[in-house]
Amino acid sequence: xxxxxxxxxxxxxxxxxxxxxxxxxxxxxxxxxxxxxxxxxxxxxxxxxxxxxxxxxxxxxxxxxxxxxxxxxxxxxxxxxxxxxxxxxxxxxxxxxxxxxxxxxxxxxxxxxxxxxxxxxxxxxxxxxxxxxxxxxxxxxxxxxxxxxxxxxxxxxxxxxxxxxxxxxxxxxxxxxxxxxxxxxxxxxxxxxxxxxxxxxxxxxxxxxxxxxxxxxxxxxxxxxxxxxxxxxxxxxxxxxxxxxxxxxxxxxxxxxxxxxxxxxxxxxxxxxxxxxxxxxxxxxxxxxxxxxxxxxxxxxxxxxxxxxxxxxxxxxxxxxxxxxxxxxxxxxxxxxxxxxxxxxxxxxxxxxxxxxxxxxxxxxxxxxxxxxxxxxxxxxxxxxxxxxxxxxxxxxxxxxxxxxxxxxxxxxxxxxxxxxxxxxxxxxxxxxxxxxxxxxxxxxxxxxxxxxxxxxxx
Length: 459
Ligand code: PEP
Ligand code: CO
What we know:
- The protein is α/β, with parallel strands linked by helices.
- The chain has helices spanning about 10, 30-40, 50-65, 85-105, 150-155, 160-180, 185-200, 205-215, 240-245, 275-285, 300-310, 330-340, 370-385, 430-450; strands at about 5, 70-75, 110-115, 130, 135, 235, 250, 255-260, 265, 290-295, 320, 350, 360, 365-370, 390-395.
- The strands form four sheets. Strands 2-3-6-9-10-11-12-15 form an eight-stranded parallel β-barrel, surrounded by five helices.
- α4 (about 85-105) packs across α7, α12 (about 330-340) packs parallel to α13 and α13 runs parallel beside α14.
């Protein structure tokens, strides 16, 4: 095992970020409680090890080179309460099934990354929420406060970060325990895909596609031989800098600091300013990292950000997650891809078709249309392929459960159905059926472009 130095946490990734503007941080009311929580986390064990992060970085380097595809997904926000092993298992299973379909579609090995075991902190558009004249702090994720609309629940409590650390360890343990078990590998994924196809309204077409996937062998466990069935990495938005820095450790063999709260951390669209605390902290850690970019970003803004976060331009270090919205992806993304490619920057391009497509429903629920999600993903592939670049992956908010949070898809969730099983405390997720529907629709589209007689051939 790689030994870890016990460097003081605050110095492991520098302290420079502390003097810079940090967006989206909670207003912790009790500084002593914050110090106590940070102290506890500083003395806690790492959740992931540097060599695992390095392994993921090498996988993502293959994505950046066009030799692999990333499937990343999970909850918008994980919950501390009301979690069950079966539900976590269904989400992990869904990711494996998606990996099988996308592996077939792209004829490439798939890197599978969950938004899991750490995705507990949320950026919000407003610091407060007003209901019937009562104003309370906004819900910022279970790492910060409770979702219930009471003053007690909404008061930020730093001890929640300690609870999140322990919960993350438990989730990670569960997923690692399943590692080579019944949920992973091509066979269980294919069995689930057959079940999905048999119950889909597009049954005939989807069963034929499932046959083609099966004949192609499923790329998840094959590819060029490096991909281990069931290999799953953990990711979350590195939003709470007190939490992340307290869990930063130095790898004794290299002297490099790593965030040990998860394998891959990303910077959100709202906290990616070049002179901000998040970019400073992320520039110091050695994990593979990602940045979300929305439709407002320009190439002139993006290039310095890439250079700051990936100064050695090594593939796998930096993944760009475009979340433009269906309506804008074809208009905004080309100039960015063109310029970044022309300037020789080695990044992986990934599509988040969720966050640019959020709408309100008549019932007051936040929702997303399946058709918009499909359209943005299709637009992403068109743009990247049209420019001779590699569409490197998808980043989805999903669950393996039968929730009613997004509308549309073959299972036909309508606006009226949303209240029935709307469980997300934050953004709406694709359910199991909608997640697979998305992958099948994209894979069908890709099949239409293939030369005949070449199942699973490269696009
Ligand atoms: C998210 O991934 O849940 C999120 C908040 O994304 P973004 O930063 O792109 O809005
Ligand atoms: Co979200």
